[in-house]
Every structure is written in C-alpha cells, then in structure tokens.
Amino acid sequence: MSGRTRVVVIGAGAFGTALATVMTLQGNLKVTLIGRNPALMSDLRDVRIHDGALPGVPLPDALGFSAEPDAIAEAGFVLFAMPSQAQADAARYYGPYLAQDATVVSCAKGLERSTAALLTDVLERELDGRSAAALSGPGFAADIARGLPTAMTIAARDAKLAEQLAHTLSTRTFRLYPSTDRAGVQLGGALKNVLAIACGIVEGAGLGESARAALISRGLAEMSRLVERMGGQAETVRGLSGLGDLVLTGTSHQSRNLRYGIMLGRQAGNGEGDELVEGAFAASIAAELGRRQGVDLPVTNAVADIIAGRLGIPAAVDQLMTRPITTE
Length: 328
Ligand SMILES: NC(=O)C1=CN([C@@H]2O[C@H](COP(=O)(O)OP(=O)(O)OC[C@H]3O[C@@H](n4cnc5c(N)ncnc54)[C@H](OP(=O)(O)O)[C@@H]3O)[C@@H](O)[C@H]2O)C=CC1
Ligand SMILES: O=C(CO)COP(=O)(O)O
Fold this sequence. Notes:
Elements: E1 5-10, H1 14-25, E2 29-34, H2 38-47, E3 64-66, E4 77-80, H3 87-94, E5 103-106, H4 119-126, E6 132-136, H5 141-145, E7 150-155, H6 159-169, E8 174-179, H7 182-204, H8 209-229, H9 234-237, H10 240-251, H11 256-265, H12 278-293, H13 298-307, H14 313-321
Parallel strand pairs: 1-2, 1-4, 2-3, 4-5, 5-6, 7-8
Antiparallel strand pairs: 6-7
Helix pairs in contact: 3-4, 7-8, 7-10, 7-11, 7-12, 7-13, 8-10, 12-13, 13-14
The structure holds NADPH dihydro-nicotinamide-adenine-dinucleotide phosphate and 1,3-dihydroxyacetonephosphate.
1,3-dihydroxyacetonephosphate binds at residues 109, 138-140, 196, 245, 248-249, 255-257, 278.
C-alpha cells in the first residue's frame, strides 16, 4: 500500500472534495483532502459525507482528511482546489511543506484580480519558479464525485509531464486529456464563466434561446481572440476547456455562474450571495486584460459593465446588436 502514488488535494469545497473522491475510488492513488477547518476535517473523517459541499455523496473509506499543512509533505501531486483569488495565499501558506519533486496543479477557473495573471503564473511566482500545471474543463463537482462520466484537460508546460498527469490522475469515470497549452486551457476556464453569466442574463431577461446560441458562438469567437493573443491555440478553445465548458455552464442550471446571470437578468437584486461566482470576478479582470492587449471582447465588457451597474440590459443588447457588421 505504501507504494501507491500520493496525491493531496487542498481545498475542501465542492471541487476539491469531488476530485479527492474520484481519485480515491480509482484505487491506485493514496489521496488526502486538506481543508483549513480542523472541525470540518475531523467530521468528514468520521461521517464521510460533506453536506456543505456535496450533499448525499458518500466519501470513500480510503480517502484521508487533514487540516495540517505538513500532510502534503510526501505527496507527488498537489492539487490547489480553492477559488482563484485564494490561490496565491494558499501557495504562500502550503509552499514550504511541498516535497522537492512535487508537481502542483491549479484547479481553479479564473485570473488573479490584482495582476490579471494566469493561475499557473501565480503559483510559479509564489512557489519560487516551481512549474505549475492547470486542470480545467466541463465537469460539475457533484457529477464527478458521483462517478458520472466526465472529461477535462490537464495542461503542463512540458508535454511529458502533461501525459504523466493525465495517466496518473485519470480514472474509469474521470478522463483527463493532456495539453501543453496552459494559456488556452486557463483562459477558456476563466472566460467561459463570464459567458455563462451572459447566458444567464439572456435567460433571466427572457431574450430567447436564439440569443443564447448567438452568444455562445460569438462568445467563443472572443475567447479565441484573447487566447491567440496570449499565445494559446484556437484548437484549445474548440476543446473541453473552451467550447465544452461553455456549453455546459451556459446551459445548465447546476452552474452558479449561470444562476447568477439569471438573477441579474431578472433584475432580482445584484445577485450577491454566499455562492462562489468566479465569473463575477473574471469579467472585469478579463475586460481589463482585453483592453491592455488590444483585443475586442464585447460580451465580456458588457457583462463587466452590467455587474458594475454601469450598463442596463436593454442598452447592452442594443450595444451588441448595433456593432459594425463584419464577417464571422
Ligand atoms: N464546483 C464545481 O463544480 C467546479 C469548480 N471548479 C473550480 O474550483 C474552484 C473552487 O470551487 P468550489 O470548490 O466549487 O468552491 P467552494 O466554494 O465549494 O469551495 C471553496 C473551498 O476553498 C477553500 N479555501 C478558500 N480559501 C482557501 C485557502 N486560502 N486555503 C485553503 N482552502 C481555501 C474554502 O474553505 P473554507 O470553507 O474554509 O472557506 C472552501 O472549502 C473554483 O475556481 C471553481 O471555478 C472547477 C470545476 C468544477
Ligand atoms: O466550472 C464548472 C463546471 O465545469 C462549475 O461551474 P460553476 O462555477 O458555474 O458552478
């Protein structure tokens, strides 16, 4: 048993708990989930249900739990599964406990607010240049944890490492595709959240399914423009972490970003709540990144302006529909 590869997932929310669960079930890995609340981690160890994050999903007996940072010391693979804006803090806190040869993977979908940096760049900055990989793509935590078939992309700078990560962390129900396009994979994950909010606004405001289809297509076009400007590949945008995740979260009410957009579209308050809505942060960050890079991001800009209260929905629709006519 001690020969099994050790994996640590940091962040005992929905996604971290789901990843730790599915990877434990594959049987070849020794997985520990680390959270920062000792009482919760002790409870999870005893009860094996995380009602707050994955209600009704049994957590496997072989999954370990800890609130101690030194529990990562022997892990070969360390997954950072906390929200985007917490990745830098977490790297600073857990970094000193990492084994020298450990591979770190960012599992969040967003960009750093203060710098607009990709999260792999954030981890590398905070972890003294240690190379970081990124996991992104379509998959709700509850589906992954329940063992429903899901597929995502795992991107590393080095192709061999990406292959190794995909082979080591994939399971019979959770399939990972290796990639070396870290920018494309992460920008896809960050921007699809903004576009899912836009799809929610369309639904909430009753603008129709035709409008949603147009938004998904044109949203994908602006995602491509930014990805290519940032050195990523158009084919990544057409893959799981771009089109795949946009279709999932732009159409499913399981998506927190979509639900937040619906609230905005219904003008039922500003949509603020306890749930994590990554796209609400990413909208203004991506809009600023687009301005800085000279990339036209009309949907992203409109979502950022609506969230900030600078633009009403009828004016946003008018603005998008009266742009100069161009080829697709
Ligand atoms: N949920 C999903 O279906 C999916 C989510 N993702 C992505 O995963 C990321 C996390 O989302 P999700 O799990 O859903 O969010 P949740 O809100 O369910 O959980 C976030 C967790 O992160 C923990 N956390 C926050 N800050 C830190 C920190 N500094 N150190 C350690 N842990 C911390 C929180 O701990 P505490 O409770 O103590 O505050 C909480 O347990 C997001 O970027 C999201 O886009 C990706 C794919 C699917
Ligand atoms: O990214 C996700 C599924 O791929 C989860 O989406 P939400 O954060 O919108 O719930």
